[in-house]
Specification:
Number of helices: 65
Distance between the termini: 62 Å
Strand order of the largest sheet: 16-15-17-18-19-22
Strand content: 5-15%
Structural class: mainly alpha
Mean pLDDT: 78
Shape: flat
Helix content: 40-55%
Number of strands: 22
Length: 1566
């Protein structure tokens, strides 16, 4: 039967079968159809084009397939666009209309929608996508296009039953045929080359394209396909193969084998053979991954290599450690129940071929299909991960995975649905966890030998190639949905599992400082490390934080904080941390710390949580602060070149850590966490910890010399500056301590603008995305554009004379410089240190320009936003005795000019003092310490208030100094009998002798006691290193003379204890520093305090800063004011006038001698200038005797040397020879008689042209009449000066040319309706000749200086001819004849006949072209480039998909010639001729090797000049006056008329070579 059907016509067979199937008893038709399909769709026959033809005819049921397609489309009830595109497709994204950040639109839907004033951009898709128009779950309905805004499905009639009857019968067999092909063709990549798999896909390409074509028929056909793809019964019948079908049976076995080889088993096999695995407890606890389990994975790594190369993920069954007991077989169980599931399986197995991906996505507008396909995709998620990790083309595969997943998970309703039904969150977290487990290594942080923590290996391909990116991207996508994120936050066991995942990144990419030799190889793994923390840890964190903004979500924050602390404690235990970090180790990656910090911040700021309720005990806080503080100290070490032997990559890490894309996820949380710790820990302990970490405690001595065991001398100053700057940042930064989101955005924007003027796009890029999104509409917050207009002025783009084109820039307003410039924020956000200096230079320029300050200003002090009440404890840092001792010591050292002190050190010290004065501690409670004597520096200052301690006088200080120090030398000179004066510094009490009583409320448990002992130890150690304890001083014996002690050569000098007499307070030191800076003894008078106003000291130098501090101290404390008055009175007594001493007389004589020398020098210079002028005036007229003598001597000898000539082109000199003759250029001055002769000859030609043009305008009768008139006057005297005779001659000669007067052009007969009179003819002839006469007269004026007289319009012709000498005298235009100006050197009629005969050669050209040549338009316009549209989108949409005229394909880089409008291919091989690409060829033909081309896909213009080319720039700018090269931002672009005029002018004036500097060879490749 099948054979007979095959022999028949396809159309009639299809019609016959459809008729049989429509009957009530269709068994015969079904049998015949099945037999036909068995024969046609036989997989063993291979890919057969004939089979596709049969399928098309069968689906159409006897009608033509095209007609069938049109009919099915008429029943399209889809309300979604769903257009699928692949990589490099141009699409649009509107953030105003988008609900999901992944929303995108095709060009047609975007252009047909209303997006006026919206925040949208055009982009070139990287991974592919699909149009979301019509999908209300992804975008707002207001953004739908006009087509999808209507509910089209409501008005579409129902589909006739018989229309798709054949489709329902044929397509199941067609799909199973594709599956059979895929089963049969697959072999494992280990045993087959990739090309074998590609060969299978190529054979199936036509089949899959046919399915894709079916999906484009609309909703009706997609419904049929959905039913077939999801029908479990049909799949069961066709999939396993019939008993008699050996081929199908064998393929089914291949399918099962492919499942097993992928580490997967079916549910049946799982139940039979996996009983042992089921005994594994499902709730083993996720946190065990941090310890024993993760460690075991390292020990058994050699046993874990399986055939899929994934270290046996399936065998290890680590998913059993997951908190979820819903499906313990996420990683290794898979069962297919329908065609769709197996199609997706093979799509994954074949690594996502583009055609298959496109077909699966084209079906998404069908909602039933979308739900089923999403569940299927989630079911295969673990398998996708395994295949991705094995793939050799992971980049391509990643893009195609995201191409699918973004369409599924961007829909919140669908994401919530699969989360509830398919355990999506469990699957995603588990898959990510197992993926990272494949590249774990033992951590070497802290205790290298006993460390039990494991971290990811950043050198693995998984991290270096960002293979994890598609899975993390999906996770971030679903966490953007509030319902899904809340479900995640409510699942505590899932949170624990996620913390385990985050802990894999804690402490990764450990750096060890090289102390001896430079590293041989600089590892670049830090790129992978920073990208991994940002994408895999920080982005999910920000996604979760967006859903923790209200009080109702307090529990979520509490839960996350609790688990963060638990995981951190386990991490500290695993790395063996006690209290001190390991030396010379640095990791920038602490995601657990940052999770904890950001949830703390969000809980306090947005949810009203009490900070203390979220904090651990003191011991844990001390541990938490250690590693973030280590990073801050290491930053200074790196900038101090202490890590120079580690190579440039360590600087790259330090720069990336503070870079705009990372800072809000790295340095900002670290600083905030340190601020939290500082607000709750003992301030003396914290301050001492800071200076210890920065390794500058040895420097903080009042002795003039010291020994530093860990720093070289040149490293001390930058490290001290770093420590002080860090403290200033810590005490002044308010990003997480009280600033609103709008204030943060404003501060970020101001800091970037102060560094440099910025373009809009660079500013967008430099400002951190979180917590402020920079685009879209954020309710209740100030938009980016509004804030920008408030703080900056726009500078329009300009074109500089040198050729460089400036873009539109934003510069800070004057008020911003005056009131908002914050150098501390600039330092925090600076990647390059030079940007800080740039900001200060710009600040100085503003002060100078505005007249505020003309000198070299210091960084201005800025008032801070009030602290949130929870962080008031941070102020205690500024009011602790340890910091006050450091400040006092540094002020003293600066005043005494000790080494390694700098202006920056003084600036930061003053900044800390002023911060302390502005942030007083208002606390009436008793000190929290159990005993006042516990304070290590009580002997220095009586209290902790900075305001009180400012005027406290320190009399004596004990210091440890080398024996060679000046202090020891001075002491030896003193009398030995003199008694040591008593000390009033900290040495008055012994720290070791102080006892501690714990009574009442101060009795704490053992842990609290250990904490205090740790604090006491830190205090004791810090006290000992800086100023040494009284115990040490009292035990010290006065050393003997160093001459009596032998020291080995090169050994450091011994330290001895000395007592320094200080007798200064911080106030007195400030006054003395004021004198030092001003170089005046009486710089601060007694009356100064009464006159000073702190408000007038906002800007200035160091003097201004000191005056501002003294004024604030005096204003806030009467005691300080009295002390300051006493100090000024003592230090600055009034100085009576003195008589001139001999020394004064010497200095006066010296100054007088200098003045006289300057006067003599000026007199000599004036005399020299006078002589030079007189010489120049007489040099041309009088020759000197010396010159005459030289000439005489030269003439006495014969000249044997050759004459040399200078070449004006190349500049070389050489003789003129026969082989290489040198031509001499002689400039001749032409006379006016010559010029007049030339004008007369040219006027004759011009006049003849006028006659010819006029004859064309006549009618036939008029030509005949004037020809006869001219012939009659030809023999009359002076006929060669009669226009009638000359006109007649022209007409008679042109009549001989074929078809010259036979055209019926409208232009020819414009004036034929009126009668031509002699007067009108004369007027026309004069008007035709006037442009020539004007140009000639102008040229004569420039050549010979003749005047240009003015005249009336009607007298212009006669005046010009008279000036040019064409007539003897000036006559009125009305009376003179234009022919009277003619002068013929030969017979006029013969010459006219010769000229007209040249027109006969035009007889072969069309008549219209001949006439256009004769009818000349004497009005010449300057050359112009193409007229371009105002909106670049008009050009782009027209040309970017235009086909090449040579190969009919869309060029990769289309270009437009701006001279002639030709569409050409840039770098296109299809248009190459003899190795020369089309743009170069076109430039040769169009512009004599000069070409101007607009690159359509880049919006830039390139200039080709001969063998060179250059990028000129763009004439299209966005709304902010900025170019968008390569259309990367995709913002609307508009024509800049000024730039286009400049381009046109350079082209017209041939100045490309002179103005554009960046030329390069093109090698004919453009």
């Amino acid at each position: 039967m099948a054979a007979s059907l095959l022999r028949r016509d396809k159309k009639s067979t299809a019609a016959h079968l459809k008729a049989d199937l429509k009957r009530t008893d269709n068994s015969s038709g079904l049998r015949q159809l099945q037999e036909l399909l068995d024969s046609v769709l036989n997989p063993e026959r291979g890919s057969d084009p004939e089979a596709l033809e049969w399928c098309k005819w069968l689906l159409a049921g006897g009608d033509g397939f095209d007609e069938f397609c049109r009919t099915v489309r008429s029943y399209d009830n889809a309300t979604l666009c769903g257009l699928v595109w692949t990589a490099n497709f141009v699409a649009y994204r509107c953030r105003t209309c988008g609900i999901s950040p992944c929303m995108s639109l095709c060009a047609e839907c975007f252009n047909n929608g209303d997006h006026t004033g919206h925040d949208f951009n055009m982009f070139r898709s990287q991974a592919g996508g699909a149009c979301d128009c019509g999908d209300g779950n992804v975008m707002r309905e207001s953004g739908f296009c006009s087509r999808h805004r209507l509910k089209t499905g409501e008005n579409v009639p129902s589909v006739p039953r018989d229309l798709l009857l054949m489709s329902e019968m044929v397509l199941p067999r067609f799909i199973i045929t594709i599956i059979q092909y895929l089963r049969d063709g697959y072999t494992e990549p280990e045993s087959a080359a990739d090309r074998d798999l590609q060969k299978v896909l190529q054979q199936l390409e036509a089949h899959i394209s046919f399915l894709e074509e079916l999906t484009k028929m609309g909703g009706a056909m997609r419904t049929v396909l959905t039913k077939i793809l999801t029908n479990q019964q049909t799949f069961k019948e066709l999939s396993m193969g019939q008993e008699e079908n050996v081929y199908a049976k064998r393929n089914y076995e291949k399918y099962l084998s492919a499942l097993k080889s992928s580490g997967l088993v079916s549910v049946e096999e799982k139940g039979a053979g996996g009983a042992g695995a089921a005994d594994t407890p499902a709730g083993a606890g996720a946190l065990s991954l941090l310890g024993a389990t993760a460690a075991a994975s390292l020990e058994d790594s050699s046993k874990e290599e399986d055939q899929d190369g994934l270290q046996g993920v399936g065998q290890r069954k680590r998913v059993k450690l997951s908190s979820s007991t819903k499906d313990p077989s996420i990683m290794d169980t898979l069962k297919h129940k329908c065609f769709l599931e197996e199609l997706l399986f093979w799509t994954i197995k074949y690594e996502f071929p583009q055609k298959m991906v496109t077909f699966l996505l084209n079906m998404l507008p069908d909602q039933d299909y979308k739900i089923t396909f999403t569940k299927t995709f989630v079911q295969h998620y673990a398998f996708i991960m395994k295949t991705l990790m094995k793939s050799h083309e992971s980049d391509t595969m990643s893009n195609r995975i995201v191409h699918i997943s973004v369409q599924l998970f961007s829909n919140e309703e669908l994401a919530r649905h699969v989360t509830e039904e398919c355990q999506l969150l469990d699957i995603m977290v588990t898959v990510l966890l197992y993926m990272m487990e494949s590249c774990l290594i033992k951590s070497e942080l802290q205790d290298e030998e006993n460390n039990r923590h494991v971290v990811v290996n950043c050198g693995e391909a998984l991290l270096k190639n960002n293979t994890y990116w598609p899975l993390v991207s999906d996770f971030i996508n679903i966490l953007s949905h509030q319902s899904v994120a809340k479900r995640f936050l409510e699942d505590h066991s899932l949170l624990l599992l996620w913390m385990s995942f985050v802990s894999f990144f804690q402490g990764m990419n450990l750096n060890k400082r090289e102390l001896n030799e430079h590293v041989e190889f600089e590892s670049q793994t830090y790129y992978a490390a920073f990208a991994a923390e940002l994408e895999a840890c920080a982005q999910p964190m920000w996604g979760l934080l967006t859903h923790c903004k209200v009080k109702e979500t307090q529990e979520y924050t509490k839960t996350v904080v609790r688990y963060c602390l638990e995981t951190l404690q386990m991490w500290f235990d695993a790395i063996g941390f006690v209290d001190e970090p390991s030396l010379n180790q640095l990791t920038f990656h602490l995601p657990l710390h940052r999770y904890y910090a950001m949830f703390l911040s969000k809980g306090v700021k947005c949810q009203g949580l009490d900070l203390d309720s979220l904090l651990p005990d003191q011991e844990m806080l001390m541990k938490i602060m250690v590693h973030p503080l280590q990073i801050q100290a290491s930053l200074s070490e790196i900038h101090s070149n202490m890590w120079v032997r580690n190579g440039l990559q360590i600087k790259g890490q330090a720069m990336t850590y503070v870079q705009s894309h990372f800072c809000n996820s790295m340095i900002d949380p670290d600083i905030y966490l340190l601020q939290v710790c500082a607000s709750r820990l003992d301030p003396d302990y914290f301050i001492s910890s800071v200076f210890e970490r920065f390794k500058v405690v040895d420097l903080l001595t009042m002795a003039s010399q010291h020994q530093n065991a860990v720093l070289d001398s040149e490293q001390e100053r930058p490290m001290l500056e770093g420590a002080l700057t860090f403290l200033v940042i810590l005490c002044s930064l308010r990003i997480h301590l009280g600033m609103s989101d709008d204030e943060i955005l404003r501060a970020e924007m101001v800091s970037q603008l102060c560094m440099n003027d910025r373009t809009h796009s660079s500013l967008l890029d430099l400002i951190p995305e979180n917590p402020n999104p920079k685009s879209g509409v954020v309710p209740g917050s100030c938009s980016f554009e509004e804030m920008l207009s408030a703080v900056a002025d726009f500078k329009a783009p300009v074109f500089e004379p040198g050729g460089s084109m400036q873009q539109g820039m934003y510069t800070p307003k004057a008020d911003v410089w005056e009131k908002e410039f914050d150098p501390i924020m600039v330092i925090l956000r600076t990647v390059y240190r030079r940007d800080v200096q740039s900001a200060m230079d710009r600040y100085a320029a503003f002060l100078k320009q505005s007249g505020i300050h003309t000198g070299n200003p210091w960084p201005p002090y800025k008032e801070r936003t009030p602290l949130h009440p929870c962080y008031k404890g941070l102020v205690r840092l500024l009011h602790c005795k340890t910091l006050h001792i450091v400040i006092f010591t540094l002020l003293y050292k600066i005043w005494m000019d000790h080494q390694n002190m700098s202006e920056h050190v003084l600036c930061m010290v003053l900044y800390l003092i002023e911060l302390g004065l502005d942030n007083q501690v208002h606390d009436d409670k008793v000190e929290e310490e159990p005993c006042i004597e516990e304070h290590c520096h009580d002997s220095w200052f009586p209290g902790t208030s900075l305001l009180s301690n400012l005027h406290h006088v320190i009399n004596f200080v004990r210091v440890r100094v080398p024996e060679t120090a000046p202090e020891v030398e001075r002491k030896r000179e003193r009398e030995r009998e003199r008694e040591t004066p008593p000390s009033t510094s900290s040495e008055s009490t012994t720290f070791g002798q102080s006892s501690r009583r714990l009574t009442g409320n101060w009795r704490e448990n053992l842990r609290e006691a250990q904490v205090f002992s740790l604090v006491a130890e830190r205090r004791r150690k810090f006290q000992e290193i800086i100023n040494r304890s009284n115990h040490e001083a009292s035990q010290a014996v006065r050393p003997k003379s160093s001459s009596s002690r032998w020291l080995p050569p090169g050994s450091p000098p011994q330290l001895v204890t000395e007592i320094l007499e200080i007798r200064e307070s911080m106030l007195s030191l400030l006054v003395k520093l004021h004198q030092k800076l001003s170089a005046k003894q009486n710089s601060l008078s007694l009356s100064w305090l009464a006159e000073v106003d702190p408000a007038h000291h906002a800007h200035g130098d160091g003097l201004t800063a000191i005056e501002r501090i003294l004024a604030k101290a005096a204003a806030r404390s009467r005691h300080s004011k009295r002390c300051l008055q006493e100090i000024c009175g003592k230090v600055c007594p009034p100085i009576p006038p003195k008589k001139n001493s001999p020394g004064d007389k010497k200095s006066m004589d010296k100054e007088e001698r200098r003045q006289r020398a300057r006067e003599r020098q000026q007199k000599l210079l004036a005399e020299f200038a006078s002589r030079q002028k007189s010489f120049m005036e007489t040099a041309m007229d009088v020759e000197s005797p010396e010159t005459d003598a030289v000439m005489d001597m030269g003439s006495a000898e014969p000249l044997d040397s050759e004459v040399l000539y200078d070449c004006v082109i190349c500049g070389q000199s050489g003789p003129s020879t026969e082989d290489r003759p040198t031509g001499l250029v002689v400039l001749l001055q032409a006379s006016s008689e010559h010029f007049t002769c030339v004008v007369k000859v040219l006027y004759s030609l011009q006049y003849t042209q006028a006659l010819a043009a006029l004859s064309i305008r006549f009618s036939r009768e008029e030509r005949l009449a004037w020809s006869n008139t001219g012939a009659a006057k030809k023999n009359m005297p002076n006929s060669d000066k009669s226009w009638e005779s000359l006109l007649g001659q022209v007409i008679s000669e042109l009549t001989k040319a074929k078809d010259v007067f036979d055209t019926n052009s409208e232009e020819t007969f414009v004036l034929s309706s009126s009668v031509w009179s002699p007067q009108s003819i004369e007027f026309s002839l004069q008007q035709f000749c006037l442009p020539f006469l004007r140009l000639s007269c102008l040229l004569q004026h420039h050549l010979y200086g003749d005047s240009l007289p003015g005249c009336l319009v009607e007298e212009e012709f006669s005046l010009l001819t008279g000036c040019l000498g064409l007539t003897g005298s000036v006559q009125s235009s009305g009376a003179m004849s234009s022919a009277a100006c003619l002068e013929w050197n030969i017979s006029a009629f013969d010459l006219i006949s010769q000229w007209c005969s040249e027109v006969f050669g035009l007889s072969d050209t069309p008549a219209q072209q001949s006439v256009s040549l004769l009818v000349q338009n004497p009005q010449w316009a300057a050359p112009r480039l193409l007229h371009l549209p105002d909106n670049y989108n008009t050009i782009f949409q027209y040309y970017h998909r235009k086909s090449c005229t040579s190969c009919s394909k869309t060029p990769k880089d289309p270009a437009l010639c701006l001279v002639c409008g030709a569409f050409v291919c840039l770098k296109g091989h299809c248009c190459k001729q003899q190795g020369v690409c089309e743009c170069v060829l076109h430039s040769q033909h169009c512009g004599a090797a000069t070409g101007i081309f607009l690159l359509i896909n880049a919006s830039v213009i390139i200039i080709i000049r001969g063998h060179r080319f250059c990028l000129w720039g763009s004439v299209y700018l966005d709304a902010h006056g900025e170019e968008d090269r390569d259309l990367r931002r995709g913002k609307p672009l508009y024509l800049c008329e000024e730039r286009y005029r400049v381009l046109e002018q350079q082209w017209v004036s041939h100045t490309f070579d002179h103005i554009n500097k960046r030329w390069g060879p093109h090698y004919n490749g453009l």
